[in-house]
């Protein structure tokens, strides 16, 4: 059981919406993933008209909604976007995302801190997308963020975890949930994040843009479980040299 | 469904025996893994006396047995060992393992080729443990081996896949099943092997020596499924730069 | 020729002082490295008494001095430390270093920004130690820093470049010199940093704590040249498959 | 000083011929590299007519010649090729190269062993190109090969060292020179090979196909020295966490 603020989640996999070929595929992928958190870009929705087209076919009663502030380049824009989602009743939590680089879509640390602080003051349950800067992650936690979401690699890149070392430091120091966000490309990436001790992961492109998104969603669900169980079970240590898998001494004489 | 020679397998995970703390743990780990192939070192068994102590508590009717020739340093020893297992009725297939280096337990390519050739002539269903030498793997296949089992890294090391490049070449060129054997340490390693297109994996230490072997067996079962589904679904390509996970252009006007 | 602010440097290797076994070794290592920039922790010096013991045996006329603010945990402390060095006449440039994590010694992004801003106002030539956060590096440059010094990995760890991807992004976007600082452990690490296009590197532990610091200093000097020349020469692209190193078709008939 | 059989070499860098844009560039790159061993594919030369066009402009008196058997797919072909070079007087040593895979140009272990054995019997000074199979490398040494040349990665790929682990095992166990051959792409790769303890490296495409081959040759010369000195000097150990590069305790009081 994962708890973010006062929100209890049964799945450790959060899933994006809006990049699928069509709503049918999205609905089936969401179901296959077992997620109970759906993320979406507020900017993409015509909230004014009450349209929630991005969710077409999904029974929103079954999910926690995680609007994100994608498209914001400043704290001010991010805060305004979050409030829009709240006003539209589409907001259980909010994911702060303030982009600082158009090429890599990596976050702006200064504006991210500001936006998070402001939204915390306003009473939001705040999950903040950040780089894997170790000290920045701690500052977000100290500020009161309900979860910290370090990037594995640039959004949509599929490059996996570029710096497992930093991620591990972030996880070790954290008292709030760490959700690895952005850049994961395959089930092995998902399992690796969970084995490092992450509390959950967020995926969008890796599922939505896979050859078969529904099967990939199922794969990711299994990978998250596999990685989590592996973390809990405790893996063997890495040893530079071999130890016999089938020890042969002292048992049956060499004939 | 995986088929090796004439033997049909429902699981893509093969599991070693004999390194567990006790038979109860082994039995439960085997069950949790969902495997239908159990491997064991013939040398470790007192076959003369009909003892199958290594399998205590396991219902052998439910599994395919894969005796291995661990402890053999020459083709001759390996062949003799395989025949012992056959004579004892403990042999659905045989895993050829001829060690050429005491430190790394990496296989001897020359003796491995010889042993495989001889056992194929004798009518065995042969699965051969080998290094990740690309040409050697092809020679084993051309010779008639029913499966080729390249090492990810030294036996029991938990170092994972040291050379994914070679493994991928081996898998691409193969017409027979490729079972990644030795060195896998965690669920992410298992998933990675399967995503590369391996037909299965063999684990021993990674499960038997984990903190909680039964939970790790479950983790590995899920990881193998996750990796396989990921392979079948088709992952996104790796892109050096980001693509917006939540595209924002042209949808709702920036307010 | 490397230029930082108005300071011209002939070597792309900056070297730390104060971790050597004795002053003789330090002097010889400095000479072997060919550096013309010496860094030192202001905090370690008894500046009050005019002591420059850390430099014993070195002819300071020959070097540019780069005092760093190591030991500072806030912008205020860093600024005060920089001014101490300036007042003591030991300051051609200043390296801003504000630590935000005692375990990893990784920098505090917020205090680092503040300290850099303040020292720029005061007219210092500022080189700022930072994480490999891509946007943070750009902000430091935009603020006016004369060089940005992203960490390869934690100070003194010898882990090398944990995230070459981020480093490359930082280098690509930069208009000011990028000096890779912290964590480099071997000549190959140094060469890699330079091949990525870094303008220089800063070393301390990798030289001072090597088995033979003087020989390692020489090795690092060569590695920096090698990496720089390699960058300038333009390496071959990586190709997933082989191309014949000794092409044989169409030349001499196969006999 | 490197000694292979009875041949003494002053440089640890061997260089291929025949892939350069023209003879002038080749001559200058060879000079810049400082090599004293030139390799060439016998198959490419019109030895029948005494032509040594590949060497045009080079003063062959100054170099040791290392003909290779590139183009051979069997031991028989390799032996015949070696004898051709010998008959033409172009042979101080011979590099056995028997390709077993057209796609990767990785060597055939069985034919490689046979060819090496045969040429050793004939009295050649034999350097054998092999995969990074640890046991195979040892067998070649035990057979009497004067040097073993494991591939870093496929010929001409520039992928660098795919499996440093295996390479290190090969180097540790060896009593004869280990020359890392094939796949190195940049100065950092060259330095890494030397830091692992290799006795030398062989390059062709990485230099000949670089943007500026002459400058790259110079870079590689420096990288080989850097890596060797680094190996001899003894690098610092990798530490998972930081140690202060500029220790601050107990020296000057925090003000």
Describe the structure.
- The structure is a homotetramer of 255-residue chains.
- By secondary structure, chain A is an alpha/beta fold.
- Chain A has a single domain, classed as Alpha-Beta Barrel (TIM Barrel).
- Helix content of chain A is 36%, strand content 15%.
- Chain A has helices spanning 23-33, 75-87, 109-121, 134-143, 164-173, 187-195, 205-208, 213-233, and strands at residues 2-4, 7-9, 13-16, 37-41, 64-68, 94-96, 126-130, 147-150, 179-181, 200-203.
- In chain A, the strands form three sheets. In chain A, strands 5-4-3-10-9 form a five-stranded parallel β-sheet.
- In chain A, strand 1 (2-4) and strand 2 form a beta hairpin.
- The longest helix of chain A is centred in the last third of the chain and has 21 residues, at 213-233.
- Chain A starts with a strand and ends in a 22-residue tail after the last helix.
- The model of chain A is unreliable at 248-255 (pLDDT under 50).
- At the C-D interface, strand 4, helix 2, helix 6 and helix 8 of C face strand 4, helix 2, helix 6 and helix 8 of D.
